[in-house]
Write a structure and sequence with these properties.
Blueprint lengths: L14 E5 L4 H12 L3 E8 L7 H11 L4 E6 L1 H5 L30 H16 L3 E3 L15 H13 L2 H4 L5 E3 L7 H10 L24 H14 L2
Parallel strand pairs: 1-2, 1-4, 2-3, 4-5
Helix pairs in contact: 1-7, 7-8
């Protein structure tokens, strides 16, 4: 299987803040940024998600790929707001229901907006010019904050509402997987020596951390690796 490794979107060595959940998409972004020889500050968030086991994977990935730093930001207030099956255990995570509704109950209100705001603050502190997010607009689960227009709008916010932007330091939102299918991402992860077991994608893992195999994230992931293997 031949996979083309994307070229860096900007010339020269770059410093980036990368949102690292511990899942396939963000793990692939980290491996890719490392291949580009970017200096990476990784950010993860503990917001009361029921799939908190992903944070352990994030820590392992950050160490393996040599992130300059890895911060896990506690955001208990986000989980306390509820409104999502990922943070409210009274709401069941849908199983075998991929694509049945436009925006599933696993959507966490304003999550990427909040995560990107922290990444923006970290970029100002570290001098980073790039913010990397593993958003995907093709094989995504209906999340409005993974759309290209949202990311473009936030990039404008980054340039208008920061000291760095006012002083002329251009801040860019990079989503290298945005136009890729899950099969593309699976194939790319393997080409970057990221084994399937290195990342965790399940929304509703068991007490031992084992994936449920039936939530949207599990179904998308399995479909992606299956299609990648058939190429």
């Amino acid at each position: 299987m031949s996979v083309r490794i994307p070229r860096p979107p900007a010339r020269g060595a770059r410093t980036a803040v990368l949102l690292l959940s511990g899942g396939l998409d963000s793990g692939t972004c980290l491996a890719l940024a490392t291949r580009w020889r970017w200096r990476v500050h990784a950010l993860s968030f503990d917001y009361g998600q029921r799939h908190g086991v992903e944070l352990a994977a994030a820590r392992r990935l950050a160490e393996r790929f040599g992130a300059l730093s890895h911060r896990v930001i506690p955001l208990p207030g986000l989980g306390a707001l509820g409104g999502s099956a990922l943070t409210d255990r009274a709401i069941s995570v849908p199983k075998s229901a991929l694509g049945e509704v436009p925006i599933p109950v696993t959507y966490v209100p304003a999550r990427n907006t909040i995560f990107l705001a922290f990444a923006l603050a970290a970029a100002e502190v570290t001098g980073a010019t790039e913010i990397v997010i593993g958003a995907n607009a093709l094989d995504y689960s209906g999340y409005p904050d993974c759309r290209p227009e949202f990311l473009r709008a936030f990039e404008r916010v980054a340039r208008l509402g920061t000291k760095a932007g006012v002083e002329g330091r251009r801040l860019s939102i990079r989503a290298p997987l945005l136009a890729k299918t899950k099969a593309d991402i699976a194939a790319l992860s393997l080409a970057l020596a990221l084994a399937p077991g290195d990342t965790i994608s399940c929304y509703d893992p068991g007490a031992d951390g084992a994936p449920c195999g039936a939530c949207d994230a599990c179904l998308l992931r399995a479909k992606g690796f299956q299609e990648a293997a058939q190429r």
